[in-house]
Amino acid sequence: MTYSKKLVAALLLAPAALAQAPLYGQCGGQGWTGPTSCASGSVCVYSNDWYSQCLPGSGGVTTAATKTTTTSKAATTTASSSGGNCQAAAHGFASLNGGTTGGNGGTVVVVNNWADLKKYATSSGKYVIKVSGKIVASPTGEEIKVANDKTIVGIGSTGEIYGGGFGLSNVKNIIIRNLKIGNTYDGDWEGKTHDWDGIQSDTSSNIWVDHCIFERGADGLIDLRLDSNYITISHVTFRNHNKVLGIGWTDNVVTQATIHHCYFQNVGQRNPSADNLKYAHMYNNYLNNATSYGHYSRGKTNMRVENCYFEKVRNPLQRDDTAVLVASGNTYVSCTGSTAANSGTAFNPSSFYSYTLDSTANVPNIVKSEAQPKASICPS
């Protein structure tokens, strides 16, 4: 029996064509030998040279994404001494200890490239640094060492830090708002190959992260370490990542953090992992599809959890025997594993600052709408 060349070729290629990466699976990258097409309902999206991922999208089965070449723009940095600073008042624990004002009252600059962002973020003095469009880190994985008294804010809803992040070391008064940060993922889901975080803070204070998206990093999306204090993380989406938000790395019990209206979507662990926090206030967060655990009160942490919505979360609430955990008003939908019972006496957040709880039933819609960059925050 004889076969046409076309038929033979089709038969040889059939197994490869049938192999499909699942939703959120890898579908490409340097050295990748697995499937390069995505299951129906997802598309293969380029992240970096080492990794492409199947993400929700229409168009049926799609094959490996190709890299989009971005043409570098010339610097258009401008400076002024007043006006248009896209500033807002910090709340939660970041409002204490003199408040968190970032670069308010200082020089306002607009940057559209990595070199200028680095120049102003590392400079002494107060700066409001407006990020225009997508800025690609060079080299990949670099964390800009931000100096005291800085606001870094995206213009409109398209400000992005691609392939890099920020390092805060023994600094104070930092605001990072209205940005998409991430895409340093190198194919190591466990995050042990590189220490490339979206934000890494060591022994720093008065930090406010607001209306941002963090995704696909090469270690932690945010690491708050070594007695970092007076922290608020609000209206932030963490998605498509394993090690999300870790707080601790210290035997001291001094850190105070507020985390509210945050969206933990398609994540693994550290949602957050709160280790040895003096006070950890979690409210109105939405966790959807977390495969390891949800809010975790570790070590000697004192944690209060209010009106959070847990959907398809494994081990929604966890607590060490040495920790305090008091949870109220939460909703659990299609969750698995265990949910820790209340234990100990939690602190009263309203003794430190004012806040308003949204109804738990409304949390998913509110958070999905608000936990992202918004054009109204910094129009220009």
Automatic annotation (TrEMBL):
Molecular function GO labels: cellulose binding; pectate lyase activity
SUPFAM superfamilies, per database record: Cellulose-binding domain (SSF57180), Pectin lyase-like (SSF51126)
Pfam assignment, any one: CBM_1
Residues covered by the CBM1 domain: 19-55
Domain of life the protein comes from: Eukaryota
Subcellular location: Secreted
Alphabetical list of Gene3D superfamilies matching this protein: Single-stranded right-handed beta-helix, Pectin lyase-like
GO annotation, biological process: polysaccharide catabolic process
Annotated SMART domains: Amb_all (SM00656), fCBD (SM00236)
Signal peptide (from-to): 1-19
GO cellular component annotations of the record: extracellular region
Keywords from the named record: Carbohydrate metabolism, Lyase, Polysaccharide degradation, Secreted, Signal
Record family assignment: Belongs to the polysaccharide lyase 1 family.
Protein name per UniProt: CBM1 domain-containing protein
